[in-house]
Amino acid sequence: MIEFQLDSTSGVATYLQLVQQVHQALQLGLLEPGDQLPTAQQVVGKLAINPNTVLKAYRDLEREGLARARPGQGTFIVGTLPRTDPATQARFLESMAKWLRSARAAGLGTDDIEAIYRTAVRNCFAEGVA
Fold first, then answer.
1. For all residues of the chain together, what is the average pLDDT?
2. CB atoms inside a 10 Å sphere around CB 22
3. Where in the chain is the domain with CATH 1.10.10.10?
4. pLDDT tens across 59-80, in order?
5. With DSSP H G I counted as helix, E B as strand and the rest as coil, what are the percentages for the chain, rounded to 5?
6. CATH of 14-77, one of 2.130.10.10, 2.40.50.140, 3.40.50.12780, 1.10.10.10
7. pLDDT grade, residue 1 (50/70/90)?
8. What CA–CA distance (Å, rounded) separates 31 from 23?
9. How far is CA 117 from CA 5, 49, 90, 113, 122, in A?
10. What is the pTM of this model?
11. Whole-Å CA distances, 73 to 1, 15, 41, 50
């Protein structure tokens, strides 16, 4: 089951962060049709957010055809998103994990690492490399 995390510094609305995390989990194959999402009560308990925020995110996922609520049972994944080759994803995930461990060992914090990553992504897409 997915465990949501929030980034209060991202500037992205809380419900959209939840939706984005489901999208990412689908793209990486971490969520598949039939998987259950945490209940609104579970998400509220873990993240201390308003239940309506969770319900809004889940309604958005339903409108996209990615999730469906089953009364009395919960909300389940029913759709998929396009995925790249799982082996390619795994190779780059391992490469990124190695880079992150190296960055942490060099004394860089989360904010430093995120700034470097976001700058690199922006530069690559601006250059047409990515």
1. 94
2. 24
3. 14-77
4. 999 999 999 999 999 999 999 9
5. 55, 5, 35
6. 1.10.10.10
7. confident
8. 9
9. 19, 28, 18, 6, 9
10. 0.80
11. 15, 21, 13, 21
